[in-house]
Amino acid sequence: MEEAEVPLEHLHEQVHHSAEESGEKWISWVALSTAILAVLAAIAGLLSGKHANEAMMSQIEASDQWNYYQAKSIKASVLDAKMALATAANESDRAKAERYEKEQEQVKSAAEGKEVEAKSNFHQHEVFARGVTMFQIAIAIAAISALTKKRRLRLVSLLLGVGGCVFLGPGFGH
Question: What is the pTM of this model?
Answer without folding.
Answer: 0.60
